[in-house]
Amino acid sequence: MKVILKNDVRNLGSYGDEVEVADGYGRNYLIPKGLALQATGYNKSVIDQKKKIILARLEKDKTEAESIVNQLLAEEICFQRKAGESDKIFGSVTSHDIAEFLNAKGFNIDKKKILLNDPIKNLGSFTVSIKIHPDVPCTLSIKVDKEE
Fold first, then answer.
1. What is the pTM of this model?
2. CB neighbours (10 Å) of residue 91?
3. How far apart are the two ends of the chain, measured CA to CA in Å?
4. Three-class SS state of 80
5. pLDDT digits (tens, 9 = 90+) for 24-40
6. What is the pLDDT of residue 133?
7. Alpha carbon distance 44, 11 (integer Å)
8. In this predicted model, what pLDDT tens digit does every residue of 76-122 receive, in sequence order?
9. Which CATH number fits domain 67-146: 3.30.830.10, 2.60.40.10, 3.60.15.10, 3.10.430.100?
10. Nearest in space to 62 (alpha carbons), one of 136, 144, 123
11. pLDDT recorded at residue 86
12. In this structure, are residues 98 and 122 in contact, taking their beta carbons and an 8 Å threshold?
């Protein structure tokens, strides 16, 4: 039985793929769960139209992400923290602190998208990755200075 996938199905294919499956798997699982449609001419044209709309939206999201990354790279991110004699700061700079700083500057970035392995606990410059879009990498430089 030939079906057109409406969702990504592991070990089978992705959205819009036309695949050959066993009759029982298609009729009893894929189609009732809404994961696939029977491969007919009409269903192919509907899926193709939806796929074009989705690809256009993905391209728009990518260009928006690129503009956000360019704006982020223009920002200087600097934190002032109290520090001891060995340049170790009291407390730390976390992804929550970075997200609050960026939100104050007008960027709507969730702290879960800031990829910081460990909190920053020393003075100096650090690089932090932000996951804005899967195809658009973003690495920011963060500076932690001693508070006077």
1. 0.69
2. 12
3. 73
4. strand
5. 999 999 999 999 999 99
6. 87
7. 21
8. 899 999 988 888 898 899 999 999 999 999 888 899 999 988 899 99
9. 3.10.430.100
10. 136
11. 85
12. no
Q: Report CA 24 to chain centroid distance, whole Å.
A: 36
Of residues 104, 142, 139, 109, the one with CA closest to residue 123: 142
* The pLDDT value given to residue 31: 94
Question: Using CA atoms, how far apart are residues 75 and 91, in angstroms rounded to an integer?
Answer: 24
55-62: long-range contacts, CB 8 A cutoff, minimum separation 24: 61/133, 62/133, 62/135, 62/136
The 3-state DSSP class for residue 115 equals strand
pLDDT given for residue 147 in this prediction: 84
- Show the tokens assigned to 12: 């089978």
The CATH fold of domain 2-62: Ribosomal Protein L9; domain 1 (3.40.5)
